[in-house]
Amino acid sequence: MDRLGIIAGAGTLPGKVIAACREIGREYVVLAFEGSADPQTVGNAHIEWIKMSSLSKALEIARREGIVELVLVGKIPRPSVVDLLRDVRSAKFMAKVGTRILGDDSILSAVVKELEEIEGFKIIGPETILQGLLASPGVYGKVTPSEDDIADIKRCFEVVHAIGNLDIGQAAIVQNGFVVGVEGAEGTDRLINRCAEFLDPKLPGGVLVKAAKPGQDRRVDLPAIGPSTVENVVRAGLRGIAVEVERVLVVDRVKMVTAADTAGIYLIGTTP
Question: If phi over 0 gives left and psi between -120 and 50 gives alpha, with beta otherwise, what is residue 45?
């Protein structure tokens, strides 16, 4: 089996991919982004530290290590134009895609296209290594959403897909039909935290929805939820979480369901 290059960003997902590779005996090398990947998460794995602004070094390492397949896991940092221009390979990439692309998630699609079509690597999704990671349909725990909850979920999916079409974010919060907040550059946890003060405990509903952007490449930057998502949702006073089937990564599902059942909130995988 070909050696795998694990391009690691922030979060716990890189560590889980590493653990899975060890379990199945697959050779791997971790290319971890400086300032994003957590050294404790990747543990004592073979790590090469890289920067988005230095594509030359990253490609050199990948070829030196005999890497054929690449998996991108965790939140990947967006580089500044100034940083990119400091590296010859990065500058060529910039000249090809233009500076406007750096303001949104389409940069990842451009990077994937460059890695596959120009550099000859194969990009795979993390679910290829971690079986069962993609959201499945149905209620995951003991709590079932009410009719009010279902109405909020439907409304929230409409909002998430609207902002997804504009390449803004992958999550939103709706309560009783009112859009409390949408995800921007801050990420889901901060979205939940800043929306907490606007939720009305006297009103029904209150849901966080996560969904991929329309037309998004499923192999990179799919939205993800984990135990911390449940903790923040409970703290904020929301009634539940809904995720798009086959388009959201559900990390530590057993732990999430246990926490949700204990707190009395629902977790559901559904389609818009």
Answer: beta
How far is 144 from 227, CA to CA, in rounded Å? Answer: 19
Distance CA 259, CA 257 (A): 5
Residue with tokens 């990390």: 251
Phi-psi region for residue 205, left (φ > 0), alpha (ψ -120 to 50) or beta?
left
Residue found under tokens 């926490």: 259
Model pLDDT for residues 30-52, shown as the tens digit of each residue: 998 888 888 888 777 778 888 76
Reference 124, options 228, 50, 20, 227; nearest CA is 20
CA–CA distance, 267 with 145 (Å, rounded to integer): 8
Place of tokens 């490449």: 217
Lowest mean pLDDT segment, chosen from 10-19, 45-54, 256-265: 45-54
